[in-house]
Amino acid sequence: MKQLKNQTLLASVLTDGKGQQVFNPFDDSLLATVPMSCQAKIEHDVVEMEAGQKAWQKKPVSERCQLMKKWHQLILQNEDDLAMLITLEGGKPLKEALGEVRYGASFIEWFAEEGRRAYGNTIPSASNDKTILTVKQAIGVAAAITPWNFPLAMITRKAAPALAAGCSFICKPSESTPLTAFAVTELAYQAGIPKDVLRMVVGENAHDVGEVFTYHPSVRKFSFTGSTLVGRKLQMQCASTIKRTSMELGGNAPFIVFDDADIDSAVKGAIASKFRNAGQTCVCANRFYVQEAVYDEFIQKLVAEVDKLKVGNGLDESTDIGPLISKEAKQRVSDLIEEAKGRGARQINQERSLEGNFIAPTILIDVEHDRPLVQGEIFGPVLPIIRFSEEDKMIAMANDTIYGLAAYFYSQDMNRIWRVAHNLEYGMVGVNEGIISTEVAPFGGMKQSGNGREGAKEGLEEYLETKYVCIGGLDR
Ligand code: SIN
Question: Can 248 be counted among the known catalytic residues?
Answer without folding.
Answer: yes
